[in-house]
Amino acid sequence: MLQRESISIFDMLKIGIGPSSSHTLGPWRAAERWIKELKEEGQFDKVVSISVHVYGSLSLTGKGHATDYAIILGLLGTDPESIPIENIHGLVDAVKSSCKLNFGGTKILSFNPRK
User: Fold this and answer.
1) In a domain, 46, yes or no
2) How far is CA 35 from CA 2, 42, 45, in A?
3) Which of 59, 62, 66, 109 could pair with 18 as two cysteines, CB 3.0-4.6 Å apart?
4) Structural domain total, the chain
5) What is the pTM of this model?
6) pLDDT, tens only, 44-91
7) SS3 sequence, the chain?
8) Does residue 37 lie in a domain region?
9) Reduced to 3 states, what is the DSSP secondary structure of residue 94?
10) Residues 7-53: tens digit of each pLDDT
11) If you count DSSP H runs as helices and E runs as strands, how many of each does the chain have, helices first?
């Protein structure tokens, strides 16, 4: 009997902020993964500053596609699947106005998103 692997529609389509999941969920998940790896390697507490560089289409259309929001939200340690949508603008606006980032939800760092 031939067995076939099945995938769900939810494996193919993801819901997230912005018009493009590759410009939002990708960077958001990358930030989440980086935080997780830092913690696993015992390096998280050694982070004293963060600088983010985006390239390619992320740098060309990032703000229009909410990449900046996704990066900030990922660095805050929020989860795109469970974050209350009504909190998104407030969280990002707080980082932009204070130039402070609650990195991973546990560590306050200076962070200027305009740079």
Assistant:
1) yes
2) 41, 11, 11
3) 66
4) 1
5) 0.81
6) 999 999 999 888 877 767 666 788 999 999 999 999 888 898 999 999
7) CCCCCCCCHHHHCCCCCCCCHHHHHHHHHHHHHHHHHHHHCCCHHHCCCCCCCCCHHHHHHCCCCCHHHHHHHHHCCCCCCCCCHHHHHHHHHHHHHHCEEEECCCEEEECCCCC
8) yes
9) helix
10) 665 565 555 666 667 778 888 999 999 999 999 999 999 999 999 98
11) 5, 2
For residue 28, being part of any structural domain is answered with: yes
Residue 84 belongs to domain spanning: 20-110
CATH of the domain at 88: 3.30.1330.90
The answer to whether residue 90 sits within a structural domain is yes
Amino acid identity of residue 15, one-letter, is I
Using CA atoms, how far residue 13 sits from 18, 27, 70, 75, in Å, is 14, 16, 17, 23
